[in-house]
Amino acid sequence: MAADAGRAAGAQVTHLELADFDLPLYNADLEARGTPDNARRLKEIFHAHPAWIICSPEYNGSYTGLLKNTLDWASSPIKGDPEWSSGTKPFVGKVVGLLSASPGALGGLRSLSHLSPLLLNLQCWLTPKQYALSKAAEAFDDKGQLISGLAQAAVQGVVEQALHGARKLHAPD
Ligand SMILES: Cc1cc2nc3c(=O)[nH]c(=O)nc-3n(C[C@H](O)[C@H](O)[C@H](O)COP(=O)(O)O)c2cc1C
To answer: Which residue ranges run through the membrane (predicted)?
Structure first.
């Protein structure tokens, strides 16, 4: 839905499933033996995209370990590689819209309040609009589309703000 909204607004969209990158659990001793190719690939993809939408479920009132692990790998400098010596390089100036979804009544809203400061710390810009989809198990039809027009409009609003922000921020002077 978010990817479709981005395409409808004229963006070239790359849809990532973080689990597909199959990154090991980050720790510095492991990293000292070499950065996984997929961590480098993620850095390149993040860096190449001026607007992002992050959509995640909520675990124990926060964002998931998978998302944290991905952000940890993507923000860790690659030792001995001058191109990626700055951990924040993939993140600086990205305009990020946040979406969550969960079967609960709050739709993962609490996870967004934890994720926001992490992304700000990495020098991302966050859209003023965010959206938490409650009762997510019943929210989609059998084609995977959101049933509620209000929910569709809310997702579209976040996507449009991210694109608008990125176009303004990255416009030539
Ligand atoms: C360990 C764990 C903790 C969870 N904590 C929350 C929570 O705090 N709030 C919530 O709304 N849902 C919570 N859930 C429900 C998940 O949001 C729900 O299972 C969701 O569909 C998981 O998506 P996934 O299968 O893509 O990881 C939790 C699920 C798990 C496994």
So the answer is: none
Q: What is the pLDDT of residues 109-153, one digit of tens each?
A: 999 999 999 999 999 999 999 999 999 999 999 999 999 999 999
Q: What values do phi and psi take at 11, rounded to 5? A: -90, 150
Residue 140: CB within 6 Å of ligand 1?
no
Decide whether any atom of ligand 1 lies within 6 Å of the 19 Cβ: no
- Measured by CA distance, the residue closest to atom 28 of ligand 1 is 59
Residue of 20, 54, 55, 59 to mutate, ligand 1, most atoms within 8 A of C-beta: 59
pLDDT digits (tens, 9 = 90+) for 51-103: 999 999 999 999 999 999 999 999 999 999 999 999 999 999 999 999 999 99
- Is the pLDDT score of 108 beyond 80? yes
The three-state secondary structure class of 25 is coil
CATH number at residue 12: 3.40.50.360
Q: Of the residues 16, 54, 58, which should be mutated to test ligand 1's pocket, given the most ligand atoms within 8 Å of the CB? A: 58
Give the structural domain span for 92. 2-169
How many domains does the chain divide into?
1
